Amino acid sequence: MENVFRLVDHEDYFSRRCIWVNGPVIVGAGPSGLATAACLRDQGVPFMVLERAECIASLWQNRAYDRLKLHLPKQFCQLPNLPFPQHFPEYPSKRQFIDYLESYARHFDINPRFNECVQSARYDETSGLWRVKTLSATRTEVEYICRWLVVATGENAECVMPDIDGLGDFKGEVIHASEYKSGESFRGKKVLVVGCGNSGMELSLDLSNHNASPSMVIRSSVHVLPREILGRSTFELAVMMMRWLPLWLVDKIILILAWLVLGNIEKYGLKRPSTGPLELKNREGKTPVLDVGTLEKIRSGDIKVVPGINKFGKNEVELVNGERLEIDAVVLATGYRSNVPSWLQENEFFSKKNGYPKRPFPHGWKGQAGLYAVGFTKRGLSGASCDALKIGEDIGNVWKQETRQKKQRTTACHRRCISQF
Questions:
Q1: Which of 45, 195, 331, 393 sits a CA distance of 20 to 30 A from 252?
Q2: Domain boundaries, the chain
Q3: Class (C level, CATH) for 161-335
Q4: Which residues have C-beta within 8 Å of that of residue 210, sequence separation ≥ 6?
């Protein structure tokens, strides 16, 4: 499948193995990497997928909480060329989505090289090739050499750990949301959830459902929308309206419908941004929260909404309004970030500041010298699928053209040999 052979590099002969890849190297075996591999397979292009973890979709398998479900209907989350099984519910669970990804990899014969952590990747202008150096779990160094490099490590490669005054002195348990599995272990405890995105909202709900006492920190404005309106997905309604109406008008309609369904949420400490939810998503990549029951718990007082944090003490937290809360544990639902700047030695395409392509969607999928990016659109799985299709077609066109030229040269050579004979 991989269509690779060993290539000896005299500079590194004694220090590492060098492997020539007859096709692209894809860094990352999450949904973005799998989608790209499937699109390349459809174009007849060989490839190699490198994954630092021991499994595909490690974010979903190792760093996602148990109650997690897809926030959007399944038709907006499926990867190219293989829909979800018909018997899956409208919002597949974590386990169902992992099953789908594993079946996707089997269907397209995608076999990543696991436990291969990319240390660096650079473009060699002399040879016109990419040199990708990895380190395995057994400390074995390998250098992969290829014409095309696809960065599929995505937006959620590394946890964001905030620097909050006094957090290191707090004596209770402190975990990132990536370590949270279930509220069962927090039963009866007072838990501070830092962050009010979809993860923060759902973790607070899960904690309340397990008889913990969660307080959720909301230090800025946030759009909270019902997941469904009149039995239809809010996202689906927005997509339908955007076919006919301008973005600003769709935002207004969505907010009016949200007010009718949810009522006035600002009295519970949830202040809406002045910018509409769709415009904010397009401009800054901030995803609106789709409510799955958290608001009801906030209204009942089972989940307490608190302002920003001033500092932590040994067994308490002091808020910006001067209030002090005794707490037993802290869950940091503070998100993730790209790790591309830590290993990709390239200055033009990716930003060193945030690890995203410098050009905004829909132009951030292709760089120079055979460099591609997938899964950095801030548009979820549908954005990654869009990138993957473009990358597969772009590389596929070059691959097919070169294959035809090789066949033509072989045929011409064969005819000359026959004529000479």
A1: 195
A2: 17-157+338-412, 161-335
A3: alpha beta
A4: 182, 183, 184, 186, 187
In eight-state DSSP terms, residue 270 is -
Residues 6+ apart with CB under 8 A from 339: 153, 157, 158, 355
The sign of the CA dihedral 245, 247, 249, 255 is: positive
Structural tokens at position 281: 């998503």
In Å, how far from its chain's centre is CA 14?
37
Q: Look up residue 409 and give its amino acid.
A: R
Residue with tokens 């707490």: 327
Coil, helix or strand at residue 260: helix
Residue 281 CA to residue 238 CA, distance in Å, equals 13
**Across the chain, how many H-helices and E-strands are there?**
9, 24
For the chain, the C-alpha Rg in angstroms (whole number) is 25
Per-residue pLDDT of the chain (421 residues; tens, 9 = 90+): 444 444 444 444 444 689 999 999 999 999 999 999 999 999 999 999 999 999 999 999 999 999 999 999 999 999 999 999 999 999 999 999 999 999 999 999 999 999 999 999 999 999 999 999 999 888 899 999 999 999 999 999 999 999 999 999 999 999 999 999 999 999 999 999 999 999 999 999 999 999 999 999 998 899 999 999 988 899 999 999 999 999 999 999 999 999 999 999 999 989 999 999 999 988 888 889 999 999 999 999 999 999 999 999 999 999 999 999 999 999 999 999 999 999 999 879 999 999 999 988 888 999 999 999 999 998 899 999 999 999 999 999 999 998 887 776 655 554 554 444 4
Do the strands 304-306 and 289-291 form a parallel or antiparallel pair, or are they unpaired? unpaired
| Residue 79 dihedral angles phi and psi, to the nearest 5° | -85, 165
Query: What does the alpha-carbon distance between residue 143 and residue 356 come to, in Å, rounded to a whole number?
Result: 25
Strand-strand pairing, 129-136 and 141-146: antiparallel
- What is the sign, positive or negative, of the torsion defined by CA atoms of 61, 386, 253, 270? positive
Pick the CATH number of 17-157+338-412 from 3.50.50.60, 1.10.357.10, 3.40.50.740, 3.20.20.80: 3.50.50.60
The 10 Å CB-count burial string (b at 16+, else e) for 312-351 is beeebbbbeeeeeeebbbbbbbbbbbbbbbebbebeebbe
What's the whole-model pTM score?
A: 0.90
